[in-house]
User: What shape does this take?
Amino acid sequence: MSYRTLLVIILLVPALLLGGAKALGVTLPVPIWGRDYVLRFAFAGEAAAPLELPRVEGADDPSRPLVVIDAGHGGRDPGAVGMDADGKRFEEKAITLAIALALRDALLEQGGVRVALTRADDRIVPLPHRPEIARLLEADLFISIHADSAGGQNDAVSGASIYTLSSEASSEAAARFAARENDADRLNGITIAGASRDVSAILVELSQQRTQEDALAFASLVLREGESALAFVPQPRRAAALAVLRAPDVPSVLFESGFVTNGNDRARLTTPEGRARYAGVLARAVRVFFARRADGLQGGE
Assistant: This one.
């Protein structure tokens, strides 16, 4: 078929269809371009949305300490996934958000601090944006909340743990966890201009000694306050090169609340009573942390 013949067919066929429809009294719908006919798809490697600072809640007093709570994962990134015997699916992103909201409410009710959430709904927040939000808000403490998976239907592994930043992992399990969490953006097709492992390594080296000491102190308080209230893994204090903790001037911890693949942990993670217990432990640790810091500042004056 020649090019000219093909061109004639392309031009004449629509005209003949319209003419026939008009002769028969049939009305053909005409598409309204630029509305529902335009579909948008997310492709791997797409650029991340611009960083948006969240609302700060609590007392309108900038002298009050600010806690930034980070609910891990979100949006198209479900995080760790577990299922019960009935096949019901439990996703980390929903669990972490529920605990983050419960902690926010507990801190606001307790008073004395301001609170901001990196996400307050089911949306994806790029990994580098999470600690950067804490830095830009000049936060005094950053708590990233997560839940883990032991893989498959493994119901034997359970318990909470708490991570602080280190260039060397405290164990092989900590190293595997850090590798998985640090790859979350790559697996979900997000690219951040200028982000690189080299920059992350520099941030680890630049982390202030006082910041790291404060993070370790807060981690110890969480373990102390949760000793009789929560179930922890045998060695709950852990360290790893976690990208979400790489704010060099904000004390940062990652609280691993439990395993979605464990029935007992799920019962604590997915009920209002269980979430209130987690929130209570973290809120008490926050209160003691800032009380001690205030005493230290007064003692140094």
